[in-house]
Amino acid sequence: MSDQNSYRTILRSSSIMGGASVINVLIGLLRMKLVAVLLGPAGIGLIGLLQNLMQAASGVAAMGLGTVGVRQIAEA
Questions:
Q1: pTM as predicted
Q2: Beta carbons within 8 Å of 39's beta carbon, 6+ residues apart
Q3: Residue pair 46/38 in contact by the 8 Å Cβ criterion
Q4: For 18-47, what is the mean pLDDT?
Q5: Which of 54, 74, 52 shows the shortest CA–CA distance to 62?
Q6: 71 — phi, psi (to 5°)?
Q7: Once rounded to an integer, what is the mean pLDDT over residues 2-25?
Q8: Buried b vs exposed e over 6-18: b needs ≥16 C-beta within 10 Å?
Q9: Average per-residue pLDDT in the chain?
């Protein structure tokens, strides 16, 4: 494979990933706007509280596995 073809492949793949990220952000904004209109400020606060609770539970459930894994790989 030539260098020019490699650069083209990398650029195309990066463009696809970047475009997907932009679309994901736009969908998130539209979703939150819809939720804000339907539920109001109290609903947004409740959603934020539930998201924080889920993130805390996820951190406890993982038990620091990612940090320990990086440390073990670095020591090996």
A1: 0.59
A2: 46, 47
A3: no
A4: 94
A5: 54
A6: -65, -45
A7: 92
A8: eeeeeeeeeeeee
A9: 90
Q: Which residue has the tokens 């596995």?
A: 65
| CB of 43 closer than 8 Å to CB of 35 | yes
Residue bearing tokens 């509280």: 49
First-to-last alpha carbon distance for the chain, in angstroms, is 35
Q: Which amino acid is at 13?
A: S
More confident residue, 69 or 1: 69
**Backbone CA torsion sign across 12, 18, 20, 26:** negative
Q: How confident is the model at residue 45 (pLDDT cuts 50, 70, 90)?
A: very high
Q: How far apart are CA 33 and CA 41, in angstroms?
A: 11
User: Residue 35 in contact with residue 44, Cβ under 8 Å?
Assistant: yes
